[in-house]
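RECORD TYPE: inverse folding
INPUT: structure tokens
STRUCTURE:
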């Protein structure tokens, strides 16, 4: 389709073109310099020029020491970490209900859940078929501690959840305890956005829920007053491109069974102020 035909088919495009063109040339000039069309706003977002400039200026005008100390440079670092933590929690409308543990990426957030969730021979790990491989990896932690695990299929036609099977699996493991259900808010395999109602349904059947929101939050709102998963994994470069190497695990303070496992306590002790 040529440009003229495209504008005929999508007349509203003309109303936004000037704004997009100006943002593209002022903030993302590297695209035209390198002659790129960039569409991956799920896997890794682009950084804007003003972001980089602001960060350079921050580094040039401050001295950041190691946090967890009381010298002036450490205090500045701690202040920035804490205000960032608050901004993240506010962004997801988490209020006072969640901890925010910074991680290297979503994979590390998921690994912390795998390492610290109190799996044992009476517990169960249920996953959707289209989880990211980093969620699949939690299966090995569950297995090592004697827990059972199972995958719930998606329909081959539209790659959406097989609702009958999922309802059955969620209500079947009645006599298990420490049951963890993990699913992606948006699948990186298919791009499908799953209905977040499954969080509440799983809770009603006594499951804890791990919501992998890494691919979802770059282009969707996650409101943690509307839905209340027990763990949420996030990766910031997927949202705003820079810096890489920062993600987060959001942990509901009142976990559905009113416990925080020993492993998780160790993590929180190490990572929170
Ligand atoms: C749904 C989902 N979960 C987890 C990850 C892993 O993210 P990270 O690269 O931050 O470890 C990705 C990465 O593409 C993803 O799309």
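DESIGNED SEQUENCE:
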């Amino acid at each position: 389709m040529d440009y003229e035909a495209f504008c005929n088919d999508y007349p509203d495009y003309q109303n936004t073109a000037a704004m997009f063109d100006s943002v593209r040339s002022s903030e993302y000039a590297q695209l035209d310099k390198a002659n790129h069309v960039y569409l991956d706003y799920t896997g890794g977002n682009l950084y804007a020029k003003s972001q980089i400039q602001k960060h350079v200026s921050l580094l040039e005008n401050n001295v950041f020491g190691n946090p967890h100390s009381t010298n002036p440079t450490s205090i500045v670092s701690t202040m920035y970490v804490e205000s960032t933590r608050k901004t993240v929690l506010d962004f997801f409308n988490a209020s006072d209900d969640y901890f925010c543990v910074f991680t290297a990426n979503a994979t590390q957030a998921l690994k912390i859940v795998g390492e610290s969730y109190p799996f044992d021979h009476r517990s169960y790990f249920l996953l959707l078929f289209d989880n990211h491989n980093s969620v699949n990896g939690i299966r090995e932690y569950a297995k090592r501690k004697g827990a059972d695990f199972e995958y719930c299929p998606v329909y081959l036609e539209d790659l959406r959840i097989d609702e009958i099977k999922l309802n059955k699996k969620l209500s079947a493991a009645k006599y298990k305890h420490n049951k963890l259900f993990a699913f992606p808010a948006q699948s990186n395999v298919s791009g499908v956005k799953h209905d977040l109602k499954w969080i509440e349904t799983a809770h009603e059947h006594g499951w804890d829920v791990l919501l992998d929101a890494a691919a979802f939050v770059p282009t969707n709102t996650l409101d943690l007053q509307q839905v209340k998963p027990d763990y949420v994994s996030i990766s910031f470069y997927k949202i705003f491109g820079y810096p890489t190497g920062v993600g987060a695990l959001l942990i509901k303070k009142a976990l559905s069974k009113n416990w925080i496992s020993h492993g998780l306590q160790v993590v929180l002790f190490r990572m929170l102020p």
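NOTES: The domain at 92-271 is CATH 3.40.640.10 (Aspartate Aminotransferase; domain 2).
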